Amino acid sequence: MRKSKEFEVERFLTNSEGYLKNKYLLSLMFEVSFDQAEEVEDKKIMEDKRWVVYSWDIKIKKPIRAKDKIKITTFAINMNKFYAYRNFFIEKDGEIIVEAYCVFLLFGLKKMRPIKIPIEIAKAYEKEDPIYKEKSHKYEGDFGNLEKIQIRNTDLDSNYHVNNASYMDLLAEISNVKDQDIEFINIVYKNEIRNKKYVFGQKSEKENEIIYKFVDGNEEIYTYGKLGLRNV
């Protein structure tokens, strides 16, 4: 079962050069998946559970600009034990300009740990074949110095940890790359950032690629991944 939603990209969602911020690219895709969840999931079954994002692979074929009219579609491609796997794609004028692969974990709210996805929930999504698959990644490189990054109150969501989309702002602090110059985003959320005033970022730069990680003062990893850059 697919869920689609159309948007016109408002200027307040864009950067100083008029391109959609990657923070809001993630937010818009989340919005469509949340809408689908409200439509297909049994609220009684899900009342003591919530979905947590584990990872993203996002291929941005063409950057999105202010006032672009886009359509975002999502669908489930598999559910296995604790994990739900989704595809997203974004169209403009009938052309697919963004493709994404996302992994969610189902958490039980009582013990705050992963739980098996109920059969009723898995069946409700009517999974289908993927159009975009997760890439195989290596996260090796010569990482530079730790950069201290302040966590702002506006980075937090209703669960009082750093919002998944807000990690794009943290990435901007250490990468110094414009939104429109990023053509691939990989991000793995290993541990949530909660009750922290700051974190540390590290990066390793290669040609057209940045490998990064966010850690605490003891270098325990919160998040890691890589960015692919356009030839500009």
Question: What descriptive keywords fit this protein?
Answer:
single chain; alpha+beta; Thiol Ester Dehydrase, Chain A; 4 helices
Explain the overall architecture.
This protein is an alpha+beta fold. 17% of the residues lie in helices and 41% in strands. The protein folds into 2 domains: 2-125, Thiol Ester Dehydrase, Chain A, CATH 3.10.129; 147-229, Hotdog Thioesterase (Thiol Ester Dehydrase, Chain A, Roll), CATH 3.10.129. A hairpin with a 2-residue loop joins strand 3 and strand 4. The model has no long low-confidence stretch (mean pLDDT 93).
What order do the helices and strands follow?
Answer: EHHEEEEEHEHEEEE
Question: So what's the CATH class of the largest domain?
Answer: Alpha Beta
Oligomer: single chain
CATH superfamily of the largest domain: Hotdog Thioesterase
Mean pLDDT, as a whole number? 93
The CATH architecture designation of the largest domain is Roll
Biggest sheet record = 11 strands, antiparallel
Helix/strand/pairing class, anyone? alpha+beta
Please compute the radius of gyration using only Cα atoms. 18 Å
CATH fold description of the largest domain: Thiol Ester Dehydrase, Chain A
The termini sit apart by 38 Å
Would you report the number of β strands? Answer: 11
Q: Helix coverage percent of residues?
A: 10-25%
How many structural domains? Answer: 2
Low-confidence stretches: none
Report the principal-axis shape: globular
In percent terms, what proportion of residues is strand?
Answer: 35-45%
The number of helical segments is 4
